Amino acid sequence: MTLPQGRRSSTFTRLLRHGFTDPSAAERLLAAPGLDAVRTDPVLLDALGATADPDLALHGLTRLVEAQAEAAARRELLDTLISSKPLRDRLLGVLGASEALADHLARHPRDWRALVTYEAADLHPGVEDFERGLAEATDPVTLRVAYRRCLLAIAARDVCATTDVAQTAAELADLATATLRAALAMARAAAPADAAQCRLAVIAMGKCGGHELNYVSDVDVIFVAEAADGADEGKALRAATRLAAHLMRICSETTVEGTIWPVDANLRPEGRNGPLVRTLSSHLAYYQRWAKTWEFQALLKARPVAGDTDLGEEYAAAVAPLVWQAAERENFVADVQKMRRRVVANIPAGEVDRELKLGPGGLRDVEFAVQLLQLVHGRADASLRSATTLDALKALAAGGYVGRVDAAQLDDAYRFLRSLEHRIQLYRLRRTHLVPEDDADLRRIGRSLGMRTEPITELNRAWKRHTTVVRRLHEKLFYRPLLDAVAQLAPGESRLSTDAARERLVALGYADPAAALRHLEALASGVTRKAAIQRTLLPVLLGWFADSADPDAGLLGFRKVSDALGKTPWYLRLLRDEGAAAENLARVLSAGRLAPDLLLRAPEAVALLGDERGLEPRGRAHLEQEVLAAVGRADGAEQAVAAARGVRRRELFRTTAADLIASYDTEVPVDAGALVDRVGQAVSDLTAATIAGALRAVVRDGWGDTLPTRFAVIGMGRFGGRELGYGSDADVLFVHQPREGVDDQEATRAAAQVVAEMRRLLQVPSADPPLLIDADLRPEGKSGPLARTLKSYEAYYRRWSLVWESQALLRAEPVAGDADLGRAFLDLVDPLRYPAEGLGDDAVREIRRLKARMESERLPRGADPTLHTKLGRGGLSDVEWTVQLLQLQHGWAEPGLRTTRTREALAAACAAELLPAEDAAVLDEAWVLATRVRNAVMLVRGRAGDTFPSDGRELAAVGRYLGYEAGHVGDMLDDYRRVTRRARGVVEQRFYGA
Hints:
Structural class: mainly alpha
Number of helices: 45
Largest sheet: 5 strands, mixed
């Protein structure tokens, strides 16, 4: 019958109402000869409508009915389907969720009977039940068929919610155990001579070992073997290796019935490079001597599943003590967290947002967090030693190692994410952890999880909610109970014991856990709003402190800042509400002594850390304006210079904080050269502004508005080159010019008084760091007057100037005082530093002689010349003297070389083809690295130094600043030696002409 246009059959409407997305195709399938007898049965339509994908379920049912070889078999299937609700729900539930299992049923049409029985024993089968289900398999093909039949029953219980996700995962692990046993039996039967020579045990690892397997996953194993009585060990191991390899092939190879799953033995000692099978003693020797932290973390899941039971139990008993001692290893927590970060970093950028297992907020975050806590506390508490994630999480909550609310939220999130993973994999039985993007797939998955109104929207919302919970909890999970250990808890709540809290703090790298607990108690105890906010902040801050080289210093610094600012309304609000402020503060406080010292002298500077632009360095004009304004408001020179030094302290903190935060930023690659330039420019500008302020203050206090002589300060050395480090003195020359009508003696006396008072006030002991003025590069050195007239400089340089003074003047640049006088000084010295036609041979030999003498005489006794940043091999002096020789030789002809900056001059020499690009790059890399090391030493120790620290913790902090992860200071020193050794090679060739 043809329906009028615009009208639909009642069947079409009913199908649409039951959730079919293609009712027309469904009508055709129901009208086909196989299903026509039950096409109008409301029971069937209701059951189809209850499945995850009614269209898929109907299509699978049609194929199954058509695959029945005889009419009687077809009638039996349909009669049972209509009359038996358990079968109907199970069979249609599977067909609506899994295209792959529908394919299996179409190939093996009698296997639907595996879903008929519904006895109590069928609801929760164990390994023995699965072994019986696989017993008739005689080869890899029949093993696959039997495996799929068992899998069919597991999936049926899963989609009908007869079992929860944890029970489903346990059943899948039990089925894998039975399959490994069957495969090993086949391998032994195929090689009885090999089987007779050895005892072979199969140890399950990963999710199989943890009794929490997915539908489709590699099954991780380790093989351990011993010689049978009277057998030669070498021959026994070779026999065991052949058996193990055959077992792997039986499970992994693709046949006409597909594959089961890959058996992965790469968690064995030495991974894929190590022997497939080892003896127990060989395993233990490796673990005791060579194993990395992650290998002990993996062994937490080890479980004997097949082969020689006694040997498997011996293995498990032997490795267990090693697992629970792993937390005592140096950098244990850092190693585990680094492993997690590495996993995330390796996810393709286009997949990271859909990665269910490895992505941020995914399954691996939960598993890593739980395992970390197990390894730290399982040493003393055997109740935590479960290999199953959810069981371990429950035990951690019961013992107070994790807050109960946090544990409940994490349990809920983990169950949802595992359920989602199962549904994704079940569809085609493919190994994937990516949430699909296709709406049809999302609709099927959402419906399979009980979301029927708007399945796609509901699924995405639930998925994002749970991953957000995991991301929020997985890191603080480790730190939150430390606060509960020192806080008052509600009745019935478990707390972390003091010993357990200390144990956890030691694992985090705290050298003084007792002091750390006192700090936590002082910060977080009580019922005030301040304490409540601290309890919210501290779990995250503790993680950032632990990620540094000195967690103790970070926590102590945070307590001091909080004590100073705790009553200030904006402080805790800033840390709570400004996402970056708290992390920035943690990085700054735990990276060394200099930045915290600067902050603690004026804690209100912490506000800079919450402003996105607060860490950008200020230019010289801005700084000078602020300093001069502060000087103008002050009473007397001492107060004025104190104000200038206060600005300097705050700006030094801004610079150090920005440097540390950029250096510790793991998401943005560090441009070391740009960081060095930024620090050098910022510190030089700040020093110039401070000197300008001190000059204004001293002149105003002693002479009013006008000094009897025009006065200028000339920056020299790294100051003139705008390359000052945190620990650098300010090298300067002072030049003056008597004003008209002023006697030379009066002018000189006034200039000398200004210099003396400036130097005194800039280093008067106070809360602010001193600024040391070094004028030793002046004519006649320490024997000469501190300040000279321009005419005096001219006379000296014309008559007495030596080649080293011309070299020093390459860095001369006016930094404060009378700008015209400063320019006149440069006009005076330009012919000296850029001599016409360059240097003569005698002058070049003299420079080389001076450099060689400096290398032999000025290097401190006992210093390692390969690690001294200033005078050592390939260090700052080597690079700078090489560049400066090129400037003296060619500056007269190459304008680009007329700069006070080392890196600019190096680039100009390269551009002028005076230096090959490769050599220039080598020298630049060495200079930048040596400069960063000097800055790092000052940041870490709070005092200047030209060599790497000898203290282990300080050395580690230098390493972290330079981008090296915990435990890699050896790599840092090796890299420094390598870079500077190459630079020294260039110096030998380009400077010494070797």
